[in-house]
Write a structure and sequence with these properties.
Number of domains: 1
Strand order of the largest sheet: 1-2
Helix content: 25-40%
Shape: globular
Radius of gyration: 18 Å
Structural class: alpha+beta
Number of helices: 7
């Protein structure tokens, strides 16, 4: 294969990937076969240690503190204040990121990848994170459709139980 053929092949592959990425979300169809933890918790910490309540109260990502923590669903969640910790403790499902903090765009397409706390949106009082700015921009193009697909796909993704064994 000469250089021109390689460039054409490379461009064609990139174009194909972009077209696939831009396709409609795939509700009810998952490609994820490996079980994942119910919470995307790097080193056991939810949302990389960012205060999930702050997305609702401050409308921005705020790093949490080791001083204010709460364990929920096998992950430690950090907060910027005792007030935020207490709000979370009273109703963790209200503040926790959707889909366990995995990328909302990936979930809409039936798989999981790590969620970045800086690629976020609160939609209808629900926190969503995406993996990177490109994934977020694609997710933003059809938030309602991607949310519907993610909501249908999340229960179909195989999960690891707290004991470390796969479960439905």
């Amino acid at each position: 294969m000469n250089i021109g053929q390689r460039l054409t092949f490379g461009f064609g592959s990139l174009l194909a990937m972009l077209l696939i990425a831009g396709c409609a979300a795939t509700p009810g169809k998952v490609s994820q076969t490996q079980p994942v933890a119910p919470i995307d918790a790097t080193s056991g910490v939810g949302l990389e240690g960012y205060d999930v309540v702050a997305y609702f109260t401050d409308q921005r990502p705020v790093p949490g503190s080791d001083t204010y923590t709460q364990v929920w669903q096998g992950a430690t969640w950090k907060f910027a204040s005792a007030e935020h910790r207490d709000l979370f403790a009273a109703n963790p499902r209200r503040y926790a990121p959707q889909y366990g903090g995995y990328c909302a765009y990936a979930l809409a397409h039936g798989t999981t990848v790590h969620g970045d706390p800086h690629q976020w949106a609160v939609v209808d009082e629900r926190l969503f994170v995406n993996n990177n700015p490109f994934a977020k921009s694609l997710w933003d193009r059809d938030r309602p459709g991607h949310i519907r697909a993610g909501d249908q796909n999340w229960p179909l993704i195989p999960k690891i139980s707290p004991s470390g064994t796969p479960h439905e």
